[in-house]
Amino acid sequence: MSVISIEKLTPLLERFDIVQAQLASGIEADAYVRLSREYAELEPVVGKIREMSGLQSEMEGLEQIISDRSADADMRALAQDELVTMRERTERAEHELKLLLLPKDAADERSVILEVRAGTGGDEAALFAGDLFRMYQRYAEAQRWKVEILSASESELGGYREIIATISGRGAYARLKYESGVHRVQRVPETEASGRIHTSAATVAVLPEAEEVDVDIQDKDLRIDVYRSSGAGGQHVNTTDSAVRITHLPTGIVVAVQDERSQHKNKARAMQLLRAKLYDTERQRAEEERAANRKSQVGSGDRSQRIRTYNFPQGRLTDHRINLTLYKLDKIITGEALDDVIDALTAEDQAAQLAALEG
Questions:
Q1: For the residues 64-74, what does the mean pLDDT come to?
Q2: pTM for this prediction
Q3: Which DSSP string do the residues of 10-29 spell out, in sequence order?
C-alpha cells in the first residue's frame, strides 16, 4: 500500500481552519448553514489526517532508535516490536483515510422517496411489498428518521399493491441507495393449505429527494388531472376530486398522489415526487456514463435487476450482487439487522472505487 503524503493534504487542513474560524466569527444564517455542512464533511477527514501524521512521526522516532547502534539492545528490540504494531495501525488509518477521501455522492446526505410495488405473485407479492415497506419503516425509525406516506394502494389481504413514502433524515440516501431493484421472496403463503412454497417479488426504488433548484420544471410541460380518490376494493376514500395525477410531457413521467383529502396537499406531494423522479433520471444518465468503463457496479443501477432473495423456510437472505448470504432473515425483515446487509454493500462499493482509483 502506497503511503499517503500528508504534505499534499495540507490544503484540506488549511481550509478546515478557515471554516472553523468563520463559524466562530458570527456570520449570516445562510452562510452559517453552508459552512456548517462543509465543517461536518471536513472534520472526520482532518481528524484522520492528524492521526496519520502522529503515527508517521512515531514510526520515524522508532526507526531512529532501531538504527542507533549505540542504543541499548533491549531498547532497540522493543522499538522493533513496537514498529510492527505501528505499521499495522498506520495501514489501517491510511485505508480509512482513503475511504474518507473518495469522491462523495452529492446526494448521499439527502432524504429519500421510497417506492415499493408488488410484482409477480398476486396477493402474496402485495403482502411481501408490505413486509418490505415495514422493514424500511422500522429501520428508519431506529435511525430517528421521519417516515411520511405520500400514497398507498392497499390489497385485499392487508398488503400493498404500491406504497410511496418520504424518509427524511440526514444520510438516508447513503444508507438506502443500494435497495433499489427486484426483491424476491420464497415462503409458504398463509392461504396455502398444502404447505407449498411460493415465489413472488416486489420492486423497490429509492430516489434522493430533489430540491427546487435541482430541477427546472416549466408549467407548460405539465398536464395536471384531478380525480376521485379510491381505496382497496374500489371503495371511495372521499367524495371530492382530490387525487392528483401529473404528467411531465417531455419525459412521459407520470406521478399520482391520492392520500390526502386536500387537492392542494396532493398536488404539492405529487410535485415533490416528480422532482425526485426527474432528478433521479438525470443522475442515472450521468452514472451510466461514469460506469460505462467499469466491469461491475454495486450501485443503485438497473431497477429491473433481481438483487436479493428472502428465503423464509431456511431463514436465509441472499444478496446476489455481492454473493452475500446471511442466516438471520427474521432480524433483517424487522429492520433490526438490515445494517449487516447495507454495511456489506457499502464496503463492496468502496472497495470497487478504491480499486478503480489505484488501478
A1: 87
A2: 0.74
A3: HHHHHHHHHHHHHHHT---H
